[in-house]
Amino acid sequence: MAKRFTDTVLWDKPWYTTLTPAEKCAWGFIKDKCDQVGVWEPNFFIADTYIGEKIDWQSFREKCNGNIIVLKNGKWWLVDFCSFQYGELSETSKAPPVKSYIRLLKKHGLWELYQKGIDTLSIPYAKGSDTPKDKDKEKDKEKDKEKDKEKDNSAAIVKTNKQTKNTILFNKIKDSFTSISGDFTSYPKEGSSIKRIIEYAKNDEKFIQSMLETFLKLTRGTDKFWSGQPFTPSTLAASGIWDRVKIEAEKQKKANEPWWDRFEAEEEARRVQ
Questions:
Q1: Average confidence (pLDDT) over 199-212
Q2: Between residues 246 and 266, the one the model is more confident about
Q3: Distance (Å, rounded) from C-alpha 155 to C-alpha 124?
Q4: What is the pLDDT of residues 63-72, one digit of tens each?
Q5: Distances (CA, A) of 181 to 162, 175, 233
Q6: 68-70 and 39-40 strand pairing
Q7: Residue 68: which H helix or E strand, with range?
Q8: What is the pLDDT of residues 151-186, one digit of tens each?
Q9: From CA 162, how far away is CA 43, in angstroms rounded?
Q10: Which of 56, 97, 156, 189 could disulfide-link 152, Cβ–Cβ 3.0 to 4.6 Å?
Q11: Residue 49: which H helix or E strand, with range?
Q12: Quick one: pLDDT at residue 122?
């Protein structure tokens, strides 16, 4: 029986709050019924039967903020599925599950599209742009944008507000990753991910340090899943990975916290009461 992670932040996302209860059910149905890389072959009649209400599937997809794209063969793809469930997939990984996911993406003709990054994929399609011709135009536009972004370098990414604390923190995070894994293969992609890390951590440098240390230990450990993950900002910034690393960081924090300090803190709290 397949088990999949659920995004607890989903309920707070603006696009999700616009869905009707039946449409929220439809999102969950697709997520559970799709294959291991997020591809679902639509059967609207069966889906309506399971959900218990007839869905306007065209309208539903348009409300999903670009999180679903229709492939040329008519199948639907949840573009963030792999990133959320598994983190960043790399062909250098020796983990059998990762290899199987990549094979399946290639079978669907999605591997090259996946490699361009989730930020490139998660762009809403305008109404009426469901034809392969229109989709190809959109893809060509995104290719041009991606080429322009690749011309940037790390200096361009942090050019704005160089004197701000965020920029200093940005550079610390960047240097932490590059000192371990070497230069980024895509500065725009990794730079954007570093900004997300800062946002997730709410500019808390100590928390970010704890997350990076925990993430490094996990990727250098013996667990097949974690050892197959590249030590990059884009991997850590994937929501499914971030939440799991956060849990491990909290465990380590509690394990390393001196017992006497906890005891004194609890005693002080009781005295105040």
A1: 89
A2: 246
A3: 30
A4: 998 889 999 8
A5: 25, 10, 11
A6: unpaired
A7: strand 68-70
A8: 555 555 444 444 456 788 888 898 889 888 888 888
A9: 52
A10: 156
A11: helix 44-51
A12: 37
The torsion defined by the Cα of 250, 256, 262 and 264, in degrees rounded to 10, comes to -150
Residue with tokens 């992609």: 189
Retrieve residue 20's tokens. Answer: 């009707």
Nearest alpha-carbon partner for 243 in 178, 203, 197:
197
- Exposed (0-12), middle (13-18) or buried (19+): which is 191, by Cβ within 10 Å? buried
In this predicted structure, what is the pLDDT of residue 1?
A: 57
Cβ density class 103-137: b for 16+ within 10 Å, e for less = ebbeebebbebbeebbbbbeebbeeeeeeeeebee
> Which residues 6+ apart lie within 8 Å of 99 measured at CB?
93
Tokens for 169, please give them.
Answer: 């923190």
Burial call 51-88: b when 16+ CB within 10 Å, e when fewer: beeebebeebbbbbeebbbbbeeeebbbbbbbbbbbbb
Q: Hey, where are the domains in the chain?
A: 10-150, 154-259
Dihedral-angle region of residue 58 (phi above 0 means left; psi in -120 to 50 means alpha; beta otherwise) = alpha
- Single out the residue of 124, 126, 142 nearest to residue 14, CA to CA: 124
